[in-house]
Amino acid sequence: MKAGIHPEYHPVVFMDTSTGYKFLSGSTKSSSETVEWEDGNTYPLIRIEISSDSHPFYTGRQKFTQADGRVDKFNKKFGFVDKNAKEEE
């Protein structure tokens, strides 16, 4: 690797601003704000808006809508009726 062209990679604490959840990871980002971590060392603190702790997909709060297939959407849009489908009584 070429010397002097790569950013410095170091441990950083990321904090989810909506829940307060913190985790330690490696990053090339730096910050003037620091925090003392559980191991007693001080690391730069990067504030993030969303993480796995607050994202709806990971928390189970994401709502799934019933998705029709492409053919069903086309038929609904143009008013076609399936003649082979069972008629509801």
Explain this structure.
There is one protein chain. The protein is an alpha+beta fold and 89 residues long. Helix content is 15%, strand content 26%. 1% of the residues are buried. Strands 2-1-4-3 form a 4-stranded mixed sheet, with no helix packed on it. It has helices at residues 56-59, 70-78, and strands at 10-16, 22-27, 34-36, 42-48. Strand 3 and strand 4 form a beta hairpin. The longest helix is centred in the C-terminal third of the chain and has 9 residues, at 70-78. It starts with 9 loop residues before the first strand and ends in an 11-residue tail after the last helix.
Helix content: 10-25%
Spans of at least 5 consecutive residues with low confidence: none
| SSE run | EEEEHH
Output the strand order for the largest sheet: 2-1-4-3
Set down the secondary structure blueprint.
Blueprint (H helix, E strand, L loop, with lengths): L9 E7 L5 E6 L6 E3 L5 E7 L7 H4 L10 H9 L11
Parallel strand pairs: 1-4
Antiparallel strand pairs: 1-2, 3-4
Briefly characterize the structure.
Helices cover 15% and strands 26% of the residues. With 89 residues, the protein is an alpha+beta fold.
